[in-house]
Design goal:
heterotrimer, A alpha/beta (416), B mainly alpha (307), C mainly alpha (287), B: mainly alpha, 2 domains, flat, C: 287 residues, mainly alpha, MetI-like fold, 13 helices, 70% helix
């Protein structure tokens, strides 16, 4: 009888713990995807987690492309209570991994074979010293130009193949009374153009040497001056009200036919889609002249913090849910980017998405896939900021490319 | 003071007398301890970090003043210092002048004084984020005041300071002054109401003109108000980080950079804790250099006048 | 008032200037209100002070109950309560302590009291971002980092300098004879405080409460760093609504949310406004 009671109690206890373990595990996620479209995309993930039996605690902090969120994260790390998961890009993941704060996702990564489907350049950031520390959500490409098809047709312009073609096309657009280049004057937007300018001036190998390896000779070279010259010429194509403009308002200028082109990453495509526009019908997408076949990427990922053994199962579940093929497809269809997994068919993606996915494979083969400098995938944050200072100052009012080049070299030296 | 002797317990009256005498100090002590830890302790921590090569997290090794050198050589810091001088001086001077002017006007037995006062005061109730966003809108050439006035039939009207590298900082001044003047006005109004009217009547009977009366009698009597207002305004000027971020984002480029935005960027987003700490120490030193002599002279004066 | 300000010309100038300033001051609020009552297409096409062709209250309903703050789309109403809890507690505590401090510093002078006041006063100038990391570390060690008590502690700590300043300046002018008379009658420390000072402190309490309430309610940095998820204060929610970096900018909802967020502080200013000026009067002898 006693043994029966003991057995009953034991069974009840076991049942109770397993119930509480599943129901109570909540993953707190800090991110800045607060707009309607992105939030809807992220909701897919939340529902998936709920299906797996985990709760989702949402802690969004909007603003500054993640700046505010990262400040909050710094405070929470200092206080010793980081969230279970945090949205991160590029070197930020590396920085936190270096501090020993990120958990190990290798068990689930090995089980699901992430190494076989995630492009190597992404793995460089999502892993640290051989261990997986972050689950990538998407791959964005920054060397795109988005154009209003109606204006291009009206003026009989074809997507420019060289920089001179671009300037000629811009002249035609300006003469017809439109703004040649829609742009928002914020440092990261100026830097996004710089990504393409450097790539165009010297190709992916130069880009690598200068912006990733920070070779002073490359940084101070005539090729870099050429990149700044391009920036100077592009500056002449924007309307006077560009400083401070948000990127999506610049995209709206192209959508509404006020401007001809915008140089922006493919999150801009999300705006076109939301406005009901179709690629090759209402808008055109093509690479910045001189960068065809090159892929400058940035990738959002969720890094998991070490918060204790009890939360590990939930975190691994979240990582698995992020890499789930269905989620990857759904999220990226909404966001304008392409999946971080290369084994997803491109059937449901639109023309620009298909092009991106195809170019990705080609670029990988030709070693032409590089991390975006503007978005933290080329150099650590401690150096990136000072370099962007030089770029944005030059874009706003610079007249002397060789001076800017010298400043760039100095900025890197002063931040090391 | 009583000291208990032997094994007899301290008498109740001796203890209560001790308590009464120490009570003031005891009551003050929590605040002092809090100040010591949360103000001075943290300042010391910041000074310590400024002497280390800390990047994304604190590295515990002392390395001299090289972070200070790096900060001073940074082009953004040079812009920030210049902007602080421009913004600080204009902000405080304009708030004081406007606040005093409006207070004097309101003091003239105005009808609907309460309503007008509320109109001048309400901006301070708004958070900096709201103020910055609203003014960003109004100062936007394509959407705001410029467009409005052009619509009224002045097609050549230009008010595009906010997109100009040289003039953008003045937009920050405008928004800041708008927000804080009301509070300064209230302080001056209170001060004006406290002035002895007999003095003023006597002066005007002697034939002194209105401006002279104000200049020679009223304004000098408002000295304590100037001190209070200076403290409040200096505090707001230093805290104007959120206003700048909401209004211009530091732009165009970094033309509206202030030491507070420099410090914030380097500490939190650029993983340069050492540089951020060095810039913070310099911000604090500037405050000390201005406030301490001023406070000292004011306290001295106050003590001479009272008790 | 002074002779000379009665004549017609002067009155005209005075009223003219006051109305001119009033117009400038009220303009941003009008812009915000008008924008919050227009549908989006009108905002982009019209001028900022044009009256709406099509009045709509939907932005307000959205802002309160339906707009998305991250993944949850329940508007900002929940966060209102978080802010209220935190702000009321912090205001009460910091005001009470400031009152005691002001009392001690002015009526119980001991050696070094002025120096201590100066030391405390310096706390007014500390920019919050400088203390964020050490504060986070300390709060973490105390175990209250992401909680309302932690946030209340932070705001009390940095409010003490101001509350002490206000009460000290007010009590400095409080007649000492009353205190001395009470002491002769045998009143002790707290008797004097509660029976003489507190009942006569209404105006300065109003000023202090208004100042503290505004600063704490509108704080973003501490609120974002020391709270999580659904327990975040309203400023964090407002930031998430207004500052989303992608997607359509629903300016009308943003403006409505901003005004809703400012309503408590606006209310406090309007209700307390009458006592505000009175409370700032120091050293006034005339009643």
């Amino acid at each position: 009888m006693r043994s029966k009671t003991i057995a009953a109690v034991a069974a009840a206890a076991l049942g109770a713990t397993s119930m509480t373990a599943g129901a109570q595990q909540v993953v707190e996620v800090v991110h800045w995807w607060t707009s309607g479209g992105e939030a809807a995309a992220l909701n897919v993930l939340k529902e998936d987690m709920q299906k797996r039996g985990y709760g989702w605690k949402d802690s969004p902090v909007a603003g500054g492309g993640g700046d505010q969120a990262r400040t909050v994260l710094r405070a929470r790390v200092a206080a010793g209570n980081p969230p279970e998961a945090m949205q991160m890009l590029g070197f930020i993941i590396t920085d936190y991994a270096e501090e020993g704060l990120l958990g190990d996702l290798t068990p689930v990564a090995t089980k699901e074979g992430w190494a076989n489907v995630v492009p190597a350049p992404l793995q460089k950031f999502d892993q640290y010293k051989g261990h997986w520390v972050a689950a990538p959500v998407n791959i964005h490409r920054t060397n795109w130009i988005w154009a209003n098809k109606k204006i291009f047709d009206e003026l009989k312009i074809a997507p420019p193949k060289t920089f001179d073609d671009l300037m000629a096309a811009a002249e035609k657009i300006r003469k017809a009374g439109y703004v040649p280049l829609a742009h928002g004057g914020q440092p990261w937007q100026d830097a996004t153009i710089f990504d393409s300018a450097v790539m165009s001036a010297g190709g992916p190998d130069f880009y690598r040497k200068a912006l990733i390896e920070l070779d002073p000779a490359a940084l101070g070279s005539k090729t870099m001056e050429k990149a700044f010259e391009q920036m100077m010429k592009l500056r002449g194509l924007v309307d006077p009200n560009f400083p401070g403009r948000d990127w999506n308002l610049a995209t709206a200028m192209v959508i509404n036919g006020k401007a001809g082109m915008q140089i922006m990453g493919d999150w801009a495509k999300g705006e076109f889609i939301k406005a009901g526009k179709k690629p090759n019908v209402d808008f055109l997408c093509f690479q910045y002249p001189g960068t065809e076949g090159d892929f400058s990427f940035n990738s959002d990922a969720f890094a998991m913090f070490k918060v204790g053994k009890s939360q590990e199962a939930a975190q691994l579940a979240l990582a698995s849910a992020i890499m789930d093929k269905n989620f990857q497809e759904q999220f990226n269809l909404k966001k304008g980017s392409i999946p971080a997994r290369m084994d997803i068919a491109d059937t449901n993606f639109d023309a620009c998405g298909k092009k991106s996915m195809a170019d990705l494979k080609v670029a990988l083969k030709n070693n032409a896939m590089v991390g975006s400098f503007a978005h933290g995938h080329a150099v650590p944050e401690s150096i990136k900021g000072a370099m962007i200072d030089v770029v944005t100052k030059f874009f706003n009012s610079g007249k002397n490319p060789s001076e800017a080049t010298k400043q760039l070299v100095a900025a890197v030296a002063a931040s090391k | 003071m009583d000291t208990s002797t032997g094994t007899a317990p301290v008498t109740w009256s001796a203890a209560s007398r001790w308590l009464q005498r120490s009570l003031p100090k005891l009551v003050l002590s929590p605040t002092l301890i809090v100040s010591l830890v949360f103000v001075y302790g943290f300042i010391l921590w910041t000074a310590y970090v400024s002497l280390t090569p800390s990047k994304g997290y604190v590295i515990h090794e002392l390395a001299g003043f090289f972070q200070y050198v790096r900060v001073w050589n940074h082009p953004r810091w040079q812009v920030a210092i210049h902007n602080l001088a421009v913004f600080g001086v204009l902000y405080i001077a304009l708030c004081m002048a406007l606040g005093l002017l409006i207070a004097i006007l309101l003091d003239q037995r105005i009808r609907q004084e309460g309503t007008l006062r509320a109109i001048y005061l309400y901006p301070l109730a708004l958070s900096f984020i709201v103020t910055g966003t609203a003014w960003k809108w109004m100062l936007n050439p394509g959407l705001g005041i410029e467009k409005l006035v052009q619509g009224w039939g002045f097609p050549n009207f230009k008010f595009d300071w906010i997109v100009s590298e040289e003039m953008a900082i003045y937009c920050v001044v405008i928004a800041g002054v708008w927000q804080a003047t009301g509070f300064v006005m209230a302080m001056f109004l209170a001060g004006l109401r406290g002035i002895d009217h007999d003095l003023l009547k006597a002066a005007s009977l002697d034939g002194a003109s209105l401006p002279r009366i104000y200049w020679r009698i009223v304004i000098p009597q408002l000295r304590p108000v100037f001190m209070g207002a200076l403290i409040i305004l200096a505090h707001l000027a230093i805290k104007s980080y959120e206003l700048v971020v909401a209004l211009t984002g530091g732009g165009p480029g970094y033309a509206t950079e202030l030491p507070s935005t420099f410090m914030y960027a380097h500490t939190f987003t650029r993983n340069q804790l050492g540089m951020g700490a060095a810039s913070a120490v310099m911000m604090l030193l500037t405050i000390v250099a201005i406030m301490v002599p001023y406070l000292y002279s004011e306290m001295r004066g106050a003590r001479r006048h009272s008790h | 008032m002074v002779k000379g300000s009665r004549d017609r010309g002067a009155r005209f100038v005075i009223y003219g200037l006051l109305l001119f300033f009033a117009a400038i001051y009220v303009l941003p609020l009008i812009v915000m209100l008008l924008t919050s009552l227009k549908p989006l297409p009108e905002i982009y096409s019209g001028s900022i002070i044009a009256l709406p062709h099509e009045w709509t209250v939907k932005p307000w309903i959205d802002a309160w109950g339906e707009t998305c703050v991250g993944l949850s789309c329940h508007g900002i109403k929940g966060y209102f309560w978080n802010s209220t809890k935190m702000t009321v507690a912090a205001v009460i505590i910091s005001t009470a302590i400031g009152m005691l401090n002001g009392y001690v510093l002015t009526k119980w002078r001991f050696k070094g009291a002025d120096l201590l006041f100066g030391l405390i006063l310096f706390g007014c100038f500390i920019p919050f971002q400088i203390v964020l990391i050490p504060m986070a570390t300390l709060l973490g060690k105390l175990g209250i980092a992401s909680s309302t008590p932690g946030l209340v502690l932070v705001h009390v700590v940095y409010g003490l300098a101001f509350t002490t300043l206000y009460f000290r300046n007010y009590y400095v002018a409080f007649p000492d004879e009353l205190i001395r008379a009470a002491m002769i009658d045998g009143a002790k420390f707290f008797d004097i405080f509660f029976r003489i000072l507190v009942p006569n402190s209404a105006p300065i309490v109003v000023v202090t409460v208004i100042w503290q309430f505004t600063n704490i309610w509108n704080d973003f940095l501490f609120g974002a760093s020391f709270s999580t998820g659904e327990s975040a204060p309203m400023t964090v929610a407002l930031n998430n609504v207004v500052n989303t970096s992608t997607g359509e900018r629903e300016y009308n909802v943003h403006m409505a949310a901003a005004v809703i967020a400012a309503l408590p502080t606006l209310l406090v200013y309007i209700v307390g406004g009458r006592y505000f000026v009175r409370g700032l009067m120091t050293g006034s002898v005339k009643g």
